[in-house]
Every structure is written in C-alpha cells, then in structure tokens.
C-alpha cells in the first residue's frame, strides 16, 4: 500500500501490505506452496519419462546443461590466420587491461612486411585469471576469444597452469565464416 | 596339477586398489567458505549437479569428521592460522581442493592482505581455477581428486 504524505514532496511511501483473511488462515498459502512443488515434480518427471535433458540431474561428465550460454567465458583461444600464425600483433592492450595481470607478452619483429609485430611469448596464467573477458573486449584485431564450453582446467600443480601460445592455439574457431565462435562482445 | 580358476562372480583386486576405490567414493567434505565462491558452491551441492554421484555430497560441520577440505574463497593473512588449524584437526587421510582463483594463487588480490595461494599454508591436492569456477569445473576437480586417490599408495 502506498500513500501520499501531505507536506512532503511528491513521493510515494511504501507501507507493509495488509493481510487478508485468506492470508491469515494460512491454509491457501500452504496449499499454494505444495502445488508449486508438485508442479515441478511432475514437470521433471515428464521430462525424465520422455528422455529429455535437464529433467532431474545433469549427469555432467556425460552430458552438458541444455541451457548453456554461448557467451560463456571459458578458457582463452588465440585466433589464427589462415596460414596458422596467431592473429595477435603484440600490442599488449589485453595485458594492460587485465585486472589480474596474468597475461605476459614478449613481442618480436614479424617476417611479413604488412604486420609489424608478432608475439614471441604469449602466456596466460590461468590460475590467476578471473575470466572477466576484458582481454577479449580490449583486443583491436579480434585475436583472442574465449571458448563457450568449460574446459578441464582443474589440475594438480598450479605452476603448470600457465598456458603458452601453443596451448592457447589448439582450439580453432573458424575466422573467415560469418559465424562467430566463442565469446566476442 | 589341474588349473584352478575362480568363478565369474568373484572379483580379485589388490588391497591398495580396493581401499583407494572405497576412499575415492566417500569424500566427506568440510567447506571452508570464506568468499563469493561459496555462493557458487551452493549451486554445485544443489540437486542439478548432484555431487552425491561422486560420493561427495555430505558436508560435515566439524573438520574431525571430514576427509576433504574445500578451500572456497580468499585466504587473508588473518584467516591463515584458522585454515591451518582446521587442516590439523582433520584426521588422516585428508585431501584438499583449492577452489577459485583466490585460493589457487591469490587471484587478482596481489596485495599485502591476501595469502598468495592456499598452498603456502597447507598442502593442496587439486587446484580449480576460475572466478568463480563453473559447477562443471568443480566437478572436474572432484573427479581429478578421485583419480589421484585411486592412483596413490594408501596410508593405512
């Protein structure tokens, strides 16, 4: 219930809602709660009986969530040119923008006269990375993207979680197609 | 001498492997939730990602009853002695999973207040990076720990 208070500026002030008789006997509210639980039970049961995903439990190593977002920020990918070299021009914008400061880039001169620089070392410390996607947003040449699926990042040694250029280039999104793969805002 | 073979309904194994198999599927956990990754842990332990499938769905509220310590969140220098004491209270065999960037390496809290990785305080078995890690990644970490338990020599 809102009310206008005279003398004060034109604002509405929120009061606590008054209980009706139906609320006070509690019976209808309890029934409503049970009905919601029952509705979910039968809906999940119907999904399970018709072999659809997401009914009861997501059996993770065998199946993924059906409503997994394509914009999910998983592990990083260095996008390649058609000849297999990385698109990165070693401008270090991603390393500057990174809040966790986990990107290390060492530039070297490129053989191609059209391209000035290329990364000699491109390392992402995944143990420090917070998967914010700022490196993807900062990149001027669309050289870094993020895989929509969660890769198996869990490991036994955190000092082996530094991904080098070779590891980051294993996943190949198609660049020349119109279809954009991976997180790319 | 006649060759004697066991019938098909008898399985032979080593004692070490048997104990490893049993221990890998009874990971009672103590959740040391200090920060926002603990919110993600609620999602893991809820019914969609049923951690009972891995035998790791029983959070204990005393470290003396737990097998697996999950460090879920930032460890500050003030929190470090508490974590060390909880780990010492756990009975052997004990396993440790560091969940989240802060517990793994300090994350982007590269400052004087934060311990740069939980393994500066206690030994960590499995590291799960991410900020916070998705539930699938935490399940990956639990499965990696199960692999490690099965492969290592069991302390009796």
Tell me the layout of helices and strands:
The complex is a heterodimer of chains A (185) and B (156).
Chain A: E1 2-3, E2 13-14, H1 21-24, H2 27-49, E3 76-78, H3 93-97, E4 103-109, E5 117-125, H4 134-138, E6 144-146, E7 162-163, H5 165-168
Antiparallel strand pairs in A: 1-2, 3-6, 4-5, 5-7
Chain B: H1 15-24, E1 29-33, H2 37-45, E2 68-72, H3 80-89, E3 95-99, H4 101-105, E4 126-128, H5 135-151
Parallel strand pairs in B: 1-2, 2-3, 3-4
Helix pairs in contact in B: 1-5, 2-5
Task: Give a quick precis of the structure.
The complex is a heterodimer of chains A (185) and B (156). Chain A is of the alpha+beta class and 185 residues long.
Question: Can you characterise this structure?
Answer:
- The complex is a heterodimer of chains A (185) and B (156).
- Chain A is of the alpha+beta class and 185 residues long.
- Chain A is built from five helices and seven strands.
- Chain A has helices spanning 21-24, 27-49, 93-97, 134-138, 165-168, and strands at 2-3, 13-14, 76-78, 103-109, 117-125, 144-146, 162-163.
- A three-stranded antiparallel beta sheet of chain A has the order 4-5-7. Chain A has a two-stranded antiparallel ribbon with strand order 1-2.
- The longest helix of chain A has 23 residues, at 27-49.
- Chain A is elongated and about 80 Å long.
- Chain A starts with a strand and ends in a 17-residue tail after the last helix.
- The relative contact order of chain A is 0.15.
- Residues 174-180 of chain A have low confidence and may be disordered.
- Chain B has helices at residues 15-24, 37-45, 80-89, 101-105, 135-151; strands spanning 29-33, 68-72, 95-99, 126-128.
- Chain B has a four-stranded parallel beta sheet.
- Chain B contains five helices and four strands.
- Helices cover 33% and strands 12% of the residues of chain B.
- Chain B is an alpha/beta fold.
- In chain B, helix 1 packs antiparallel against helix 5 and helix 2 crosses helix 5.
- The A-B interface holds A 56-61, 64, 72, 99-102, 125-132, 150, 152-158, 161 and B 47-50, 53, 98, 101, 104-108, 110, 117, 119, 124-131, 133-137, 139-141, 143-144, 148.
């Amino acid at each position: 219930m809102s009310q206008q208070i005279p003398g004060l500026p034109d604002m509405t002030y929120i009061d606590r809602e008054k209980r009706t008789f139906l609320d006070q006997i509690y019976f209808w509210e309890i029934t409503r709660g049970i009905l919601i639980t029952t509705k979910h039970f039968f809906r999940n049961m119907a999904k399970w009986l018709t072999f659809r995903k997401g009914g009861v439990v997501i059996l993770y190593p065998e199946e993924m969530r059906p409503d997994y977002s394509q914009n999910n920020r998983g592990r990083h990918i260095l996008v390649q040119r058609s000849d297999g070299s990385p698109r990165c021009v070693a401008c270090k914008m991603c390393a500057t923008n990174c809040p966790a400061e986990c990107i290390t880039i060492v530039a070297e001169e490129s053989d191609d006269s059209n391209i000035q620089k290329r990364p000699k070392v491109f390392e992402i410390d995944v143990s420090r990375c917070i998967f914010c996607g700022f490196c993807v947003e900062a990149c001027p040449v669309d050289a870094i993207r993020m895989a929509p699926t969660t890769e198996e990042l869990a490991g036994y040694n955190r000092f082996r979680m530094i991904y080098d250029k070779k590891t980051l280039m294993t996943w190949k999104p198609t660049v020349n197609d119109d279809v954009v793969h991976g997180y790319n805002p | 001498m006649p060759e004697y073979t066991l019938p098909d309904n008898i399985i032979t194994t080593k004692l070490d492997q048997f104990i490893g198999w049993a221990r890998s599927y009874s990971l009672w956990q103590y959740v040391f939730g200090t920060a926002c990754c603990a919110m993600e842990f609620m999602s893991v332990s809820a019914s969609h990602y049923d951690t009972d499938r891995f035998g790791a769905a029983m959070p204990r509220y005393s470290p003396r009853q737990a097998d697996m310590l999950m460090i879920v969140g930032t460890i500050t220098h003030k929190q470090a002695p508490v974590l060390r004491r909880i780990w010492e209270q756990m009975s052997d065999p004990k396993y440790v999973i560091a969940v989240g960037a802060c517990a793994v390496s300090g994350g982007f809290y590269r400052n004087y207040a934060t311990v740069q990785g939980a393994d500066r305080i206690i030994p960590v078995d499995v590291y799960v990076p991410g900020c916070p890690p998705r539930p699938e990644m935490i399940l990956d970490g639990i499965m990696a720990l199960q692999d490690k338990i099965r492969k290592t020599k069991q302390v009796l």
